[in-house]
Amino acid sequence: MLLKLSLTGIKSRFKDYLILLSGLIMASAIFYMFETLATNQEFIKQNATVKYAAMIFQFGSVLLAIITLFYIIYANTFLMSMRQRDYGLFMMLGAKKRKIGRLIFMETLIIGLIATVVGALVGVGLTYSVGQLLIGKMDIAPHSFQPFYIPAILITLLFFIVIFMIAALFNRHVLLNTPILKLLNEAEQPNSKKMKLRTILIQSVMGLGLIIIGYYLLSHMAQYQVAGLAVSIVTIFVGTFLIFNSLFSGLVQLLKRSKKFSEKQLNTFLVGQLSFRLGSLNRVLTMVAMLFALALGAITVGMGFSGITDKSVDNASPYDVVLQDPSVKEQKLLGQLTDKKEAIYATKKVGDKRYFKKSDFVKSPLYMLSFTASNMNAGKLSKIDPNNMTTKNEDDVWGNVVRTTLESDMLDPEIVSDKSFSTISAPTRNVHAVRLASFKDNKDTLKSLSQGISQSQVESSTYLMNKYVVYQSINGIFGGMEFMGFFLGIAMLAMLASILMFKILSSAAADKKRYDLLDQLGARHQLMKKSINREIGILFLLPGIVGVTHVLFGLQMFKEMIPDTYSHIAIPFIIFAVLYLGYYWLTVSLYKGIVLKK
Amino acid sequence: MKEIVVSVKDVKKIYGKNKEKKTEALKGINFSVEQGEFIGIMGASGSGKSTLLNLLSTLDQPTSGSIEINHQDISQMSGDKLSDFRAQEIGFIFQSFNLLDNLTASENISLPLSLQNASISKYQERINKLTKTLGISDVLGQYPTELSGGQKQRVAAVRALVHNPAILLADEPTGALDSKSAKSLLSTMEELNKKEQVSILMVTHDAVSASYCQRILFIKDGKIGQELVQGTQTRTEFYQEILKELANAEQ
């Protein structure tokens, strides 16, 4: 009978349970997604050029476990807040405590089990689709990447079942040891603590100071090594908390005092909501901000590795593709290249010498890249003056450039007049050297060219030059890192945004009363919607701003490893912003669905 | 003749959609409230008082009939118009106070003004006068959870009156108060009614509260039955009459 009653209770609050379940399912799915990489030693070994990669993943694993733990604690509080009244009522009507204890235990465990199993399944799908998306976008095929990975499934199941077991015991304990009257009366909303101006100032200054120390340590990684990293993580974490605890509450109070602002429409209400929330959400917001920084940092650093790939490809040669006697098919492919400059150099081979026509070099001078100690990352592009291509010294620069650019057999080149060239009795070969305005735009054509080329080489099977091949080999090294960065970043983003969303939604039931009241007092729906958009917007924006700041300074850590650390941040930032906005939108619409009358 | 602020004509309210079982909560109600009148509505549980109050407060629409408040037919309004109408013409006091717990007393009070984008400094004099009359000048900076029940209800009363509504709707305003606070609140309402000419419509089932009214309508089974007028009686005499009427209604 009791079981039936408690099931009816669930049915009547199905929508709330749906939110709870979907939150837990997401948590388990993300946990699984991360574990597919973290537990896959083979994948890490094959794809990571950095020897610390395995360690990074271990660290990430522990971090994610802690976050998940917090997440489940929140979710569990939400569950208890829904149920304790019902169970209190049953007890008041004479149900035995032991029986009630067993019911809440079972309920928590069953919800946990459903969430874990469904989550792991969703996780397989998620891992597969995110993996496919990244592989498609990045043009790489990571080795040993398996969306369905048994060890990850086992770890996910084990971890979640243990946690839910503990949660179930905890709930049982709470229910059996709380007086019935207290269960029946909903907990009163605590007051927002009013902080003294002096406390706000002291905490803000301390928080900022700690964060600055952290930034300083990060930018001097070479000097302070791992100890510096550890200390900076702690100072930034504590500093961020102090900032959320003091500075933002202080700013909200300032807003409240400004009559010009607070007297308009629902602004007083908005500020009241915010100061209440900031008081209770400061820990969550701190965690979200830190996760935000880690996630965005992971993606940005990952993309930074793609910067290395681009640089290396750029520095490989001034030419994008160099072909000798292209076949009809290849000619056609060459014709498809956009925005190109094609130069053709005729050549004849006699013994161990290779002859070129001077007129070809006058018509289109040969390009070269030169590197000096000061510009190791970007070669200096220059043209070779054809009049200088006469000396026959073996060490001559021009000779080397011709050998490496236009020849496959590394013979000594000699530049002769058209007349002399025509008298040499040997078959004429034509070397086509193509420079493109954009390698990326023509990547697919270059890829096709690289496939057909080896068969058509007449004189030598050595392929002269195709940047795509260079790109492929370098991308193989750094693409794995990029893939991991993206994967990690997206997993963390999903987690942090879910936490924030969940925390906001779990207070929606209590907020509903306030919005009902506003409606009664004659607040227009449009006005309430605007107020909700703003309120949740600020709750999303604050950790976002802090997170972005952390990333911008934290990138200093990688300045030795990644050239032009900051030149590639636009794309990851945009991707991140779009996903984050998506979560914001989802949260706002779910929240509105709960608090506003239709 | 005095101006009429609320006019209810042949109002019916039927719950239940087409195929469901229908319940007729109000079976044709007629009455009006004059400017400056303090009117009480009494009735047993299920008599239709709450339905009537919901209709008057524009939170629900009548099935048929018309309700005019300050010469505007509210059964013809919808959406934003209704919201604005509530914000401008109606003041509410509820049994459960219904203060926003995330705002201080003074913020709660100025909320109706903010909703209309009215300048609070223009109304400052009125706020000061009302808070003084209701004796809550000292607690304006506090949050509702820090106030006693009586104080909360007074804050709610000021909030209901600050924008000078056409009518004050009170739903069991003393229901959650101890007898001392209840008496003091009722006296203040009476004072506001006499001095400020505030029109009040109060729903109650408490005879003591009702004895402060000038006129009482008894609702029974969705219809207005008896009507009592205080007239020249003292409050005690009127109270006795109400008790008698209630006893009659029981039989």
UniProtKB/TrEMBL annotation, chain A:
UniProt protein name: ABC3 transporter permease C-terminal domain-containing protein
Lineage of source species: Bacteria, Bacillati, Bacillota, Bacilli, Lactobacillales
Record's subcellular location: Cell membrane
Chief localisation class: membrane
ABC3 transporter permease C-terminal domain segment(s): 60-169
Topological category with respect to the lipid bilayer: Multi-pass membrane protein
Family: Belongs to the ABC-4 integral membrane protein family.
Matches recorded under InterPro entries: ABC-4_Integral_Memb_Prot, ABC3_permease_C, ABC_permease_BceB-typ
Pfam families linked: FtsX (PF02687)
Positions of transmembrane segments: 17-34, 54-79, 100-128, 148-170, 200-218, 230-255, 284-305, 483-505, 536-557, 569-591
Keywords carried by this UniProt record: Cell membrane, Membrane, Transmembrane, Transmembrane helix, Transport
Keyword Transmembrane tagged: yes
Gene Ontology, cellular component aspect: plasma membrane
GO biological process entries: transmembrane transport
Keyword Iron attributed: no
TrEMBL record, chain B:
Top-level EC class as recorded in UniProt: hydrolase
GO biological process, alphabetically ordered: amino acid transport
Keyword field: Amino-acid transport, ATP-binding, Hydrolase, Nucleotide-binding, Transport
Any one GO CC term of the record: membrane protein complex
Short name of any one Pfam family annotated for the protein: ABC_tran
EC number: 3.6.3.-
InterPro entries on file: AAA+_ATPase (IPR003593), ABC_transporter-like_ATP-bd (IPR003439), MacB-like_ATP-bd (IPR017911), P-loop_NTPase (IPR027417)
GO molecular function ontology, one term from the record: ATP binding
Membership in a protein family: Belongs to the ABC transporter superfamily.
Protein name: Bacitracin ABC transporter ATP-binding protein
Lineage, top ranks: Bacteria, Bacillati, Bacillota, Bacilli, Lactobacillales
